[in-house]
Design brief:
The chain is mostly helical. The chain has two domains: about 40-225 and about 345-365, Citrate Synthase, domain 1; about 235-335, Cytochrome p450-Terp, domain 2, CATH 1.10.230.10. It is built from 18 helices and three strands. It has a three-stranded antiparallel β-sheet. A hairpin with a 3-residue loop joins β1 and β2 (about 40-45). The protein is globular and about 60 Å long. Bound molecules: amidocarboxymethyldethia coenzyme *A. Amidocarboxymethyldethia coenzyme *A binds near residues 234, 273, 320 and 327.
């Protein structure tokens, strides 16, 4: 904007080329839970993600809701409150048992959230958000079990063992798989809980909530947004992509990457809309993989990809960030510990995001404008004149 130009002038002078850009970079609100910088990645309430990645997921829920980490007694009390909410409304299991198995697990997650809301919403934003977070391990386990052919009640597990721990226990995997699954899932949840305000699913959830749809309906909408292949479903696509490569030989990997680009297909696990360095969440997961599964076949491939792909992608000046993003390693880690079906990976992402989106909806609905809440979203679309016949 020049010195003399008012914001109204700028608006009047907007052209179609300024507008059909998916609102990239246009400020539309405020976010109290997290921020994303081009060189530092995501920070939760000011904490760089790598600093808190191995904390208990429950403490990060507290952080995002209360904008500070809990003191020791507060952490105990918060867990007690959260886990007391882990009751499942009658009828929810029956609805899930009757869903078409052909549907994507993300569709099940969205319908599951909607169903729990229909059965038990309180219409208090915070109560509903905390209740849903507490019920997510059960909902996730129910989806995994029913789709996997195990109908009937989900085993009753003491929720106090922790969110990730309870979900894994409800799945009843082989005893030797439990520790690995819990370790990778706890970190996955923390890394994916929030990512600023403008990503599509968070924006969608807040937009729907701005019309005073309830928390569950808003969250189901957010999950539908997350399910797209350009958004949350990229973590599924990324492992499928890695499996297609099938070799960790650097020359072969480079040939594969170049061929994908020539065929106009994305090199999954690289690039970012905001970041201009490797995503710290990718850096963290690579370090975790070196500890957990250094010789895993997929891990060896992504280790080579991390060396090769940025160099090849950087040859194209249009690509703003040729470095690894969060999706490069999460599927490999989940696969290694026993979650073998990539089409379920976005549900883990959704589970984690329920926390950040829930916290952001509460902020917009009950904190913004001195508690009055942000008004209903109503952006302006500029009409484009069409020729009449
Ligand atoms: N492979 C191939 N082409 C890529 C690319 C990649 N990894 N990253 C960017 N490009 C292309 C874009 O498609 C775009 O092409 P166009 O000019 O023909 O439309 C051009 O480079 C410029 O893109 P950009 O400004 O650098 O990024 P963007 O904001 O448009 O897109 C992203 C960001 C993540 C969608 C893109 O980098 C991509 O498609 N990556 C591969 C898929 C992937 O890993 N997705 C996970 C995203 C993780 C996350 O953000 N959560």
């Amino acid at each position: 904007m020049s010195g003399e130009e008012s914001s109204e002038d700028v608006l009047l002078n907007l052209t179609q080329a300024h507008l059909d850009i998916g609102m990239r970079g246009i400020p539309v609100g405020t976010c109290r839970t997290s921020s994303v910088s081009t060189d530092g990645g995501v920070h939760y309430v000011g904490y760089p993600i790598a600093e808190i990645a191995e904390m208990d997921p429950e403490d990060i829920v507290f952080l995002l809701f209360n904008k500070r980490l809990p003191k020791p007694q507060e952490a105990v009390d918060f867990r007690a409150d959260l886990f007391a909410r882990a009751t499942i409304p009658d009828g929810a299991l029956e609805v899930l048992e009757n869903l078409p198995k052909e549907g994507h697990p993300m569709d099940w997650l969205s319908i599951g959230i909607h169903t729990i809301g229909m059965l038990e919403k309180t219409n208090d934003w915070k109560e509903d958000a905390l209740n849903l977070i507490a019920r997510m391990p059960w909902l996730m386990a129910a989806i995994f079990r029913i789709r996997g052919g195990r109908s009937g009640p989900v085993p009753v597990v003491d929720p106090h063992i922790g969110m990730a721990e309870a979900f894994v226990a409800m799945l009843e995997p082989a005893a030797e798989q439990v520790a690995g699954m819990v370790k990778v899932l706890r970190t996955f949840l923390v890394l994916h809980m929030d990512h600023g305000g403008g990503n599509l699913s968070t924006f969608t959830g807040k937009a729907v909530a701005s019309g005073h749809a309830d928390l569950y309906s808003s969250m189901a909408a957010a999950m539908n947004a997350l399910s797209g292949p350009l958004h949350g479903r990229a973590n599924q696509s990324c492992l499928e992509f890695v499996m297609r490569i099938g070799t960790d030989d650097p020359l072969e990997v480079e040939k594969f990457v170049r061929n994908e680009l020539a065929e106009k297909r994305p090199v999954f696990g690289f690039g970012h809309a905001v970041l201009r360095v490797e995503d710290p969440r990718a850096t963290f997961q690579f370090a975790l993989g070196e500890r957990v599964c250094p010789n895993d076949a997929n891990f060896r491939i992504i280790r080579t990809l991390r060396e090769v792909a940025p160099r090849v992608l950087a040859e194209n000046p249009r690509i703003s960030n040729p470095n690894a993003n969060v999706d490069i390693a999460s599927g490999t880690l989940l696969h290694h510990v026993g979650f073998h079906k990539p089409d379920y990976y976005t549900t883990f992402f959704g589970w984690a995001r329920v926390v950040g989106i829930g916290a952001q909806i509460i902020d917009e609905r009950t904190v913004a404008r001195n508690g009055k809440g942000v008004p209903i979203y109503r952006p302006k679309y500029i009409a484009v004149e069409q020729d009449r016949d």
